[in-house]
Amino acid sequence: MHLIAPSVLSADFGHLADDLEMINRSEADWLHVDVMDGTFVPNISFGFPLMEPFRKYCQKPLDVHLMIVHPEKYVERFCDAGAWSVGFHLEAVEDPIPVLDLIKAKGVRTCLTINPDIDVKRLVPYLDQVDMVLLMSVFAGFGGQKFIPETMNKIRFIKNEITQRQLSTLIEIDGGVNTSNAAELFEVGADVLVAGSAVFGAKDPIETIRLMKKGVSGLVD
After folding, report:
1. pLDDT(221) > 50
2. Whole-angstrom Cα distance, residue 100 to residue 97?
3. Is the model's pLDDT at 42 over the cut of 80?
C-alpha cells in the first residue's frame, strides 16, 4: 500500500483554498493535519477553527496528528470537527487505551505516535488496538528537518511484528520525507508517507505527489 498524506502545515495559508484544491486534483490520499500546542512540542500550529476550512475545501480524508499534552481532553472534538483519523503520542499519556476508546466511540480511525527518542518496542502491545502507528522520522514540532536514518530499522521491526501477528495495522512515517527516500520507505514496510515542504515547496507539487506515490526515488523536487 502506497499512500501519500501531504502536511497542510507547509501550505501557503495566504492561499489556503488554492493549495487544498491542488491536493484535490492530485493523487494524494489524505491531508495530514499537525496540531501543536506549544507545550508538548516547542511550536504552535492550529486547532479547531481551521478544521472547518480544511473540511470545506479539501475532499481528501483529514489525518489529524495531535502533538499536544492531555489529548484525552480534545480527541472527541477533533472527531466531531471532521477528522477521518486521529493520532496522539504514546509518550503524552499514561495509558493510551482510554484515549483510543474515545476515538473509536466516534467511529474515527485511531493512530498511536512516537517521537524518534521513544523505544519503538513500546508500540508493540498496542498494535492490535490501533488502525495505524506513526513513527516520527524527525522530532515533532517543526517542518523541514532532515530524515533520521535509524527510522528505517524501526519500520522493519514494526512491519515484522505486524506481519507475524497477521494484523492490518498501517505504518505511517512523518518527517524529512521526499522523492529521494520515498521508494526505500515503502520498500522496508511503510504504508503512508507524510510530506510537507517536499510537496508544497516543489515546483510541481502534483507531479511530486505522483512520483512519491509511485515509489520513484532519486529525483529532485
Report:
1. no
2. 5
3. no
Q: State the Cα–Cα distance between residues 37 and 72, nearest whole angstrom.
A: 14
**In this structure, what C-alpha cell is assigned to residue 86?**
486521529
C-alpha to C-alpha distance for 140 and 118, rounded to whole angstroms: 12
Q: Which residues are catalytic?
A: 34, 174
The verdict on pTM exceeding 0.70 is yes
Q: How far is CA 141 from CA 35, 47, 71, 137, 174, in A?
A: 9, 15, 16, 12, 11
Beta-bridge mates of residue 113: 89, 134
Cell numbers found for residue 135: 513513527
Query: What phi, psi does 139 have (nearest 5°)?
Result: -80, 130
C-alpha 159/C-alpha 137 separation (Å) is 16
Per DSSP bridges, beta strands 192-195 and 62-67 are: unpaired
Give the separation between CA 176 and CA 34, rounded to whole angstroms: 15
145 φ/ψ angles, rounded to the nearest 5 degrees: -80, 160
Q: CB–CB of 110/147 below 8 Å?
A: no
Rg of the chain over Cα atoms, rounded to whole angstroms, equals 16
